[in-house]
Design brief:
The complex is a heterodimer. Chain A is mainly alpha-helical. Chain A contains 17 helices and no strands. Chain B is mostly helical. Chain B has one domain. Chain B has a two-stranded antiparallel ribbon. In chain B, α1 packs parallel to α8 and α4 packs across α5. Chain B is globular. Classes of the chains: A mainly alpha, B mainly alpha. At the A-B interface, α7, α8 and α9 of A face α9 of B.
């Protein structure tokens, strides 16, 4: 009689009561239920929703750990920069240090905890009221949310945003699998429009920078997109951007780790390589168009778009949240297009539009968030036309055959 | 309710809840989204519609037997346009700042579907007293939703009610602002008004299951 059989006995006892969904959620999270399948045909496969979600979380963990260290590193780097010291990043010398970890864990882990606790409480309440099982959808959302917000976002704001995102973004549509918009991005969009001072600017990306404003110890850390939008030069070299030693939202900075996570998702067949590849192509296409405009002298160097337009097209892939959004958000199977041809169109437009928003609207440097949300809305339409096109082609073939 | 018979009373109370023009008939949404960022503007808009719909319904009801049905829409438009111009001029004369906030939406009362809807559906077929009650009831139902939406949007978006700071000073950091609270800028945007109207509809229909359509 271990914990497992105890839980099974409890499950029988609580069957049909109001709290049963909440209990079952914990039960199936820990163990495989002892129910056997009944009825006719059934497919045997190990990749149920929980497995799928866990694979995505596994792909996210490196980004989280890197984000923790980077939060500490950016904090100390900004203090040094304020004191006039410039330092080179060295992975073991001043990045993977205990000091960085302590600062990072102290700021990042509360965000993770708040995101999970608030989100799961909302899910449990809805499951109990509606009498359905708690769905696993929030496991990934809860991990994505802390990775796409700035380090110093106040916890209560995050909690409000999570409630809004889960209720309005997901539960009103009927819960996991029914949502039109990606819940994690709904949460981020809510924060972005509700509390813009905490989601943009040159202070929020570095721990304690907001608290120190106006004091002699003031520090700051502008993101690369923020500097470019103001036509300032960028003080980071390309490898820093690729490895991720730059200010930004917690988990989005390291393109290398996101790339590895993306490969993991593709090889475990959880993420769609079509969407990832086509978004990169879309982003590069828009980047090349802007490079052409800048090179041909159609706009002068004093134009406010110049610095962003003149950014090499491949550099757009490294800066900002583009890589993170493409790999982890655009590929969300619920909100993306379902047909293969639709996935190409959907991904391409995400890349194309995110670079366009990024360049043309310096107030919204994070174009990828808005681009994905926009395409989420259009995904069913894309699918509809792909399917209808297919139907028409086959009808034609049928007519030719019978005629 | 000695003044009103039970049937007449229902003309006023029905549109307040179970036959609300905004949440049940889903009419007049555009103005509900556009001007509800401030409670004061919502209230004035509600009063303006109350005036136009109350008097308009009576006028149409009195004329209902002499309006040729082919041109009745034009006649209705003239009546409502005349009333709206009166409201607009009064606002410009006595509350200029407010009329600037409401801007084009006072003029757009003319096209507010609630008004034409009541003219068509009620005033053309009922006597003036009943039409008056129906107009008042529907305008009140519209105003109630506007005031609820305006209340939440102004309170959470600007921390004020009728322009009076109730949560403390957001710049001086007094009141709840001293413990880190901040205004929600999203509340001031029209999408949030749509979401609040949606939440009201949600609450109303979960309390009264008979309202749920398939």
């Amino acid at each position: 009689m271990g914990l497992k059989s105890n839980l099974h006995n409890l499950k029988e006892k609580y069957k049909g009561t109001k709290m049963a969904p909440a209990f079952n959620a914990i039960h199936t999270f820990l163990y495989l239920p002892n129910e056997i399948t009944h009825g006719g045909t059934h497919i045997k496969a190990a990749d149920d929703l929980k497995r799928t979600m866990n694979v995505v979380i596994m792909a996210l963990v490196p980004c989280l750990i890197f984000g923790i260290f980077n939060a500490g590193y950016q904090h100390y780097a900004a203090i040094d920069a304020a004191a006039g010291i410039t330092k080179e990043v060295s992975l073991f010398g001043n990045f993977l240090t205990w000091d960085n970890f302590v600062i990072g864990a102290w700021t990042v882990l509360p965000l993770v905890i708040v995101s999970y606790v608030v989100g799961l409480v909302v899910e449990f309440i809805f499951a109990v009221i509606k009498g359905h099982e708690v769905e696993e959808g929030y496991l990934v959302t809860g991990m994505l949310v802390p990775l796409i917000v700035p380090v110093d976002i106040p916890l209560w704001m995050l909690a409000v945003a999570v409630i809004f995102g889960v209720v309005i973004g997901k539960e009103v549509f009927g819960g996991t699998g029914m949502n039109i918009l990606n819940p994690a991005l709904t949460i981020r969009a809510f924060l972005f429009f509700a509390y813009p001072t905490w989601m943009s600017g040159d202070k929020v990306w570095v721990h304690e920078a907001v608290d120190r404003t106006g004091t002699p110890d003031a520090i700051s850390g502008e993101t690369i997109l923020g500097s470019l939008a103001q036509n300032n030069s960028v003080g980071y070299d390309v490898w820093d951007m690729f490895y991720g030693f730059i200010p930004g939202s917690i988990g989005e900075t390291s393109t290398l780790l996101i790339l590895l996570g993306g490969l993991f998702l593709v090889f475990s067949k959880i993420g769609s390589w079509r969407i990832m590849l086509s978004s990169v192509l879309g982003a590069m296409a828009m980047g090349l168009i802007f490079n052409f405009v800048a090179d041909s002298g159609m706009i002068s160097e004093s134009s406010k778009f110049f610095a962003l337009m003149n950014t090499e097209f491949w550099m757009h892939l490294l800066i900002g949240g583009f890589a993170f959004g493409t790999v982890y958000m655009a590929t969300d199977p619920v909100t993306a297009s379902q047909t293969n041809k639709g996935k190409w169109i959907y991904g391409f437009l995400i890349g194309f539009i995110s670079i366009m928003i990024r360049v043309f609207n310096p107030a919204y440097p994070e174009g990828v968030m808005l681009a994905i949300l926009l395409m989420n809305v259009f995904a069913p339409t894309i699918d509809h036309y792909v399917v209808q096109g297919n139907v028409k082609r086959r009808m034609k073939r049928l007519k030719v055959k019978t005629a | 309710m000695g003044l009103l018979s039970k049937k007449d009373g229902k003309l006023i109370t029905d549109p307040l809840a179970d036959n609300n023009p905004i949440t049940i008939q889903v009419l007049g949404i555009c103005s509900a989204l556009a001007i509800t960022a401030e409670l004061k503007a919502s209230l004035v808009m509600g009063i303006a519609v109350l005036f136009v719909l109350g008097i308009g319904n009576v006028v149409i009801s009195l004329m209902r037997n002499i309006i040729p049905s082919k041109i009745r829409i034009i006649v209705q438009l003239i009546v409502v346009a005349a009333l709206v111009i009166i409201v607009d001029q009064v606002l410009k004369a006595f509350a200029y700042e407010l009329s600037k906030t409401l801007s084009v939406f006072v003029g757009l009362i003319i096209t507010n579907c609630i008004i034409m809807g009541r003219f068509e559906a009620f005033a053309l077929g009922n006597g003036p007293w009943k039409s008056f009650l129906d107009g008042i009831g529907n305008a009140l139902g519209y105003a109630v939703i506007l005031v609820i939406v305006g209340f939440f949007r102004e309170l959470l978006g600007s921390g004020t009610l009728f322009g009076v700071p109730v949560l403390g000073d957001s710049i001086e950091k007094t009141g709840v602002y001293s413990i880190g609270y901040e205004n929600n800028g999203f509340m001031l945007m029209p999408p949030m008004a749509l979401i609040i109207v949606g939440l009201i509809i949600w609450v109303q229909r979960s309390r009264n299951k008979a309202l749920i359509e398939d």
